[in-house]
Amino acid sequence: MVIVPVAVSTAVGHAPEITNDGFARQRMNKSGTFSANTTRRIVTGRSSDAANPAVIVGDKLVVQGDGPSTITARAVGPGGGGNNVHAYLVLDGTTIATYDAYGSAFNAPPWSIPRTLSNGDEVWIEATADSFATLTINVGAYIEVVPQ
Fold first, then answer.
1. What single DSSP character describes residue 88?
2. Rounded to an integer, what distance in angstroms lies between the CA atom of residue 40 and that of residue 47?
3. Do the beta carbons of residue 40 and residue 88 sit within 8 Å?
4. What are phi and psi of 124, to 5 degrees?
5. On the CB side of 120, how many CA atoms lie within 13 Å of its CA?
6. Is the N or the C terminus of the chain less surrounded, counting Cβ atoms within 10 Å?
């Protein structure tokens, strides 16, 4: 994998928080909706946060920097129409957190997972629904890497 450096832009009046020798906070937000079904798959439709830019490749946040961090993330949506629904926080192919719900409300509390990250690590959310229910992940879902 080749990681292309990206210029960091800042929103008016806000500069990205820089810690750990240049390792900055990075965030990607959910844009639009994503409908999962019985196949576990990556939640698509991601955009970089204007205040805390992230490199996004294939709907995965690609970490820029090294060091101790906290990965925060959240999956939100209207639920699975009365069936079990599941969201998974994944780091480099390994599930590091899960959230399971039943019924019409899928409003996962934010995950907060401490990890030492390396440049190029990838973080993403996957989702699935039992039976033939449809799980929709909406705007409001996010992944953020916060250097410590």
1. E
2. 21
3. yes
4. -155, 170
5. 4
6. N
d(CA 141, CA 43): 10
Helix (H) or strand (E) holding 18: strand 18-19
Strand partners, 136: 35, 79
The pTM of the full predicted model, rounded to 2 decimals, is 0.81
Tokens 């920097």 sit on residue = 65
> Are the beta carbons of 89 and 97 closer than 8 angstroms?
yes
pLDDT digits (tens, 9 = 90+) for 5-53: 333 333 333 444 555 566 899 999 998 878 777 889 998 999 999 999 9
The separation between the first and the last C-alpha atoms of the chain, rounded to the nearest angstrom, is: 26
Q: What is the pLDDT of residues 78-106, one digit of tens each?
A: 655 556 778 899 999 999 999 887 765 66
Phi, psi of 6 (to 5 degrees): -120, 135
What does the block give as tokens for 90?
């994944």
